[in-house]
């Protein structure tokens, strides 16, 4: 090679020119190294100039340089020919793999001849000669001392036949890619390098490894000849691991020389260069070669377990791709596995490699990555991938450019470093501090509700005992009656909260911090001031308590309070993209539809109000453009996801005033109080109505400003919509608790946006108004902590029945209990208690009057004095007990005592109960549940489709040598 480089190359600097000596410190006899370098290029014009500069800069250059071009259509062949002292370029077809290209290049040009001149150590040419093959990619660049350091390690450890350099990120980065590589028996490539890890000398100890990358690999000629080069069945990907594995089986050692540095672009793996000679995806090719490498080299006794492991892994990854809306990735998974297993090439490879087995597997199995490490890496990679993709979830490409305004730049709080840590956190992250307070406060406020039993109140029926019972309630109801849609959604939440009781605890006792967190997610989209944002989110969370939703056990309002801001964030994402080529976001539209479905199910009145607003806004406000269609689509999707409950809402409009969890909530409203109506405080709320007055006054003062933000007007629109909806619901006799909460939420949004606009003002009236807002919020927070969440919400047994009646409902007796309530001249009310009594959703799915007519007729007869046949009639209706809770009507009790077939049973003071003799009569229950499995299955499919549609798209990745970080290929 020429001794001088062309003028102008500036790729390397002093860092790449170490000055330490290259002699052997152990004083071994010198060895003469003869190196033949082979560069394989394919469409590498973008990288070859750097490689040429690197070859000119080498301090120790190879004796022969062979260049091979595999069917390039760019300037690769010309650039290869311009390399220093290169042999004539060998041209091959584009279908030629890397290993085959190296072999053809050596066949054409041969290894470098052994010179007879004086050797590099000043010898007389008679020293032992070791021939080496140095492999280079067209997208790599060795540092000036790379080859010299590799040869030095070869001199120090002559028993090692393969050496590899330290790989860093192209073009000249300190980020590590690889310092040796290994694999798990599951086929996962592992380097032990963390994602983004910088080279600080932490891996600079030469050591034995399973394999090294083919980019910069130095192979002794006898090793190359014995192993017959790379496997031609592996044209790219995993060929280096297969080569190192075969070398270990044949008794050769593989080592890494960290002092030798090579920069690598990994163009094929990262998708920067199209794969040559194949139509297969890079991911599919990588997976297929991983399976082939393991199957061709693993011990025979492990093959059945390995194939089972491959199958399980393929199923899991295929499910991941299907959930991530990348079905082609699932196809790649199965194509790679089945194609490799059925092609049979690995079976022939096992036969061919039996000649190499000189070292048993147990002697070098320590070089492989452990399965637990592969599992940990998979979990870390999955977590980082989900986190990365969620940040892009609602950003349909091309994404809108984020403009950093001067106002937003000034919003970053700067705190002197000498300030106490708590003060710095308070100033920089005010919401974090506020949310921690709300989180801890939730436990303090729930102090009276922690213990045994379940949460219940007059507006909250007890939750079901198990997930199975809840699922049955969601799928079963009397003929002609539709079970409420929210039971299915509640069941899904219960699966991750350790049962239905856990879901009630989370939604009620954790409603304040959860609602605050959801509000923060919305406000951060358009509120710049951090303090204003923190106040708005905290005030929104406390409004759930002030509205009485927690203390009254109104689980529907609590769910709506959490979902409303999330729906607002999704709608904001859809509506704000107007200046990009692709407007709106279908992912956000799908998510908005899911939020709409939750509102329709838990608080139908609020869901209808929001749905009508979105439809009108989408059609009139945004026009019938893509964004408007997306908003209308979200409403339609929400209605479809709660079928057939949607039909029930249309046929029975009175159900719009109900909330999930208990009986119809007609009593939850402003009553006849004008003050409660205007302040959005329902009857029975724990906080006085005048607590809301400062908030409303500040919201009114915000209207007097000359310039108002559009989000302030949206807040007022929400407040007025809630007010009008409350008036309409109250006049129609329905519950209006969720609508009154919407009023408060609108005022909070108005004040928050106004604060964000004038918060930096030094005017006294502005500062005074903000002070009033803060003080009133602190007063409500203190009131919340002192009063607590209990009353009328309480924790106790699921049923108010004697213990023996509750136990009688369990197998094998499975007793049915007729609970009859009659107070004075009021009409008689009854309920048939079975399987643990009435639970959540029982009243929404109550049987019709026609279905309960047999029991009604019997009770009517008892109220008239009875005919003496009521005992037999109750037995025929499969009733086992009649129970009268206090206060008991004396006339009805005397009538029941006189009936034949009824025996007085023990009861608590003031109560009365009778056991019905059913030994001679085979009874048939009048109310039989009709299980609607088809609707539930269709509902599950619809929800899965909706959830998948709002999730980010999964990416197919190739296991490149970049630590545990996978690279995108599609």
TrEMBL record:
Which keywords annotate this record? Answer: Membrane, Transferase, Transmembrane, Transmembrane helix
Highest taxon of the lineage? Bacteria
Q: Coiled coil located at which positions? A: none
GO MF terms here are: transferase activity
| Gene3D superfamilies in the record | Spore Coat Polysaccharide Biosynthesis Protein SpsA, Chain A
| Annotated transmembrane regions | 431-450, 504-523, 554-574, 586-602, 631-651, 687-704, 713-733, 765-786, 934-954
User: What InterPro entries does the record tag this protein with?
Assistant: Glycosyltransf_2, Nucleotide-diphossugar_trans
**By what name is this protein known?**
GT2 family glycosyltransferase
Q: Which organism is it from?
A: Kribbella caucasensis
């Amino acid at each position: 090679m020429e001794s001088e480089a062309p003028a102008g190359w500036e790729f390397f600097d002093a860092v790449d020119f170490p000055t330490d000596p290259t002699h052997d410190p152990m004083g071994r006899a010198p060895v003469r190294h003869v190196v033949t370098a082979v560069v394989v290029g394919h469409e590498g014009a973008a990288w070859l100039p750097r490689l040429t500069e690197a070859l000119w800069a080498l301090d120790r250059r190879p004796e022969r340089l062979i260049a091979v071009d595999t069917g390039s259509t760019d300037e690769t062949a010309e650039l290869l020919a311009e390399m220093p002292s290169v042999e004539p370029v060998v041209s091959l077809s584009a279908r030629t793999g890397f290993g085959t290209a190296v072999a053809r290049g050596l066949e054409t040009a041969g290894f470098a001849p052994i010179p007879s001149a004086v050797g590099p150590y000043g010898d007389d040419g008679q020293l032992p000669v070791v021939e080496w093959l140095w492999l280079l990619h067209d997208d790599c660049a060795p540092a000036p001392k790379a080859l010299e350091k590799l040869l030095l390690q070869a001199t120090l450890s002559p028993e090692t036949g393969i050496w590899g350099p330290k790989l860093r990120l192209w073009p000249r980065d300190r980020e590590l890619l690889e310092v040796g590589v290994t694999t798990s028996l599951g086929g996962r490539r592992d380097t032990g390098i963390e994602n983004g890890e910088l080279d600080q000398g932490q891996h600079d100890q030469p050591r034995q490894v399973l394999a090294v990358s083919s980019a910069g690999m130095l192979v002794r000629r006898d090793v190359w000849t014995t192993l017959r080069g790379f496997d031609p069945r592996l044209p790219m990907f995993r060929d280096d691991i297969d080569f190192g594995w075969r070398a270990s089986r044949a008794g050769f050692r593989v080592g890494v020389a960290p002092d030798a540095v090579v920069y690598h672009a990994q163009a094929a793996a990262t998708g920067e260069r199209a794969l040559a000679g194949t139509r297969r995806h890079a991911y599919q090719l990588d997976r297929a070669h991983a399976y082939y490498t393991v199957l061709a080299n693993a011990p025979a006794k492990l093959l059945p377990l390995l194939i089972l492991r491959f199958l399980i892994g393929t199923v899991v990854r295929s499910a991941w791709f299907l959930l991530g809306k990348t079905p082609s990735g699932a196809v790649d998974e199965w194509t790679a596995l089945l194609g490799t297993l059925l092609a049979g090439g690995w079976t022939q490879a096992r036969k061919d490699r039996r000649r190499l087995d000189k070292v048993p597997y147990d002697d070098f199995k320590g070089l492989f990555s452990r399965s637990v490490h592969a599992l940990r890496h998979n979990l870390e990679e999955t977590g980082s991938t989900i986190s990365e993709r969620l940040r892009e979830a609602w950003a349909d490409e091309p994404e809108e450019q984020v403009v950093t305004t001067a106002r937003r730049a000034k919003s970053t709080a700067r705190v002197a470093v000498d300030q106490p840590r708590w003060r710095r956190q308070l100033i920089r992250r005010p919401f974090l501090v506020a949310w921690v307070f709300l989180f801890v406060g939730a436990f303090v406020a729930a102090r009276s509700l922690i213990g045994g039993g379940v949460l219940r109140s007059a507006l909250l029926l007890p939750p079901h005992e198990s997930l199975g019972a809840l699922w049955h309630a969601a799928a079963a109801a009397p003929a002609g009656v539709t079970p409420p849609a929210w039971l299915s959604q509640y069941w899904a939440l219960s699966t991750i909260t350790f049962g239905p009781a856990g879901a009630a605890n989370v939604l009620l006792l954790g409603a304040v911090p959860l609602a605050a967190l959801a509000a923060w997610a919305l406000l951060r989209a358009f509120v710049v001031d951090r303090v204003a944002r923190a106040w708005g989110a905290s005030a929104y969370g406390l409004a759930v308590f002030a509205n009485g939703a927690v203390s009254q056990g109104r689980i529907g309002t609590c769910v709506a309070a959490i979902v409303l801001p999330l729906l607002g964030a999704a709608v904001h994402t859809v509506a704000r993209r107007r200046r990009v080529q692709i407007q709106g976001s279908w992912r956000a539209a799908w998510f908005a539809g899911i939020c709409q479905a939750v509102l329709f199910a838990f608080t139908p009145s609020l869901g209808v109000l929001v749905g009508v607003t979105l439809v009108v806004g989408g059609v009139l406000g945004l026009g019938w453009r893509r964004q408007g269609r997306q908003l209308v689509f979200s409403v339609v999707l929400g209605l479809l996801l709660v079928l057939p409950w949607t039909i029930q809402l249309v046929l029975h409009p009175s159900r719009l005033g109900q909330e999930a969890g208990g009986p119809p909530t007609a009593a939850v409203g402003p009553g006849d109080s004008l003050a409660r109506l205007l302040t959005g405080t329902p009857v029975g709320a724990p906080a006085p109505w005048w607590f809301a007055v400062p908030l409303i006054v500040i919201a009114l003062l915000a209207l007097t400003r000359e310039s108002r933000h559009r989000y302030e007007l949206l807040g007022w629109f929400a407040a007025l919509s809630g007010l009008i909806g409350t008036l309409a619901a109250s006049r129609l006799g329905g519950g209006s608790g969720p609508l009154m909460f919407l009023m408060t939420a609108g005022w909070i949004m108005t004040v928050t946006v106004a604060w964000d606009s004038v918060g930096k003002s030094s005017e006294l009236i502005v500062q005074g108004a903000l002070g009033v807002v803060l003080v009133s919020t602190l007063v409500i927070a203190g009131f919340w902590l002192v009063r607590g969440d209990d009353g009328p919400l309480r924790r106790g047994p699921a049923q108010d029945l004697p213990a023996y009646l509750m136990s009688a409902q369990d197998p094998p007796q499975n007793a049915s209990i007729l609970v009859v309530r009659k107070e004075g001249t009021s009409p008689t009310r009854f309920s048939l208690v079975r399987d643990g009594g009435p639970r959540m959703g029982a009243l929404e799915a109550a049987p019709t009057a026609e279905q309960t007519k047999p029991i009604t007729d019997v009770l009517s007869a008892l109220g008239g004095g009875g005919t003496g046949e009521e005992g037999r009639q109750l037995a025929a209706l499969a009733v086992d007990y009649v129970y009268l809770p206090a206060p008991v009507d004396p006339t009805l009790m005397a009538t029941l005592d006189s009936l034949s077939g009824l025996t007085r049973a023990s009861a608590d003071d003031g109560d009365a109960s009778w056991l019905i003799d059913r030994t001679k009569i085979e009874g048939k229950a009048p109310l039989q549940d009709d299980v609607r499995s088809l609707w539930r299955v269709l509902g599950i499919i619809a929800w899965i489709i909706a959830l998948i549609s709002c999730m980010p798209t999964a990416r197919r990745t190739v296991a490149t040598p970049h630590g545990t970080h996978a690279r995108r290929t599609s």
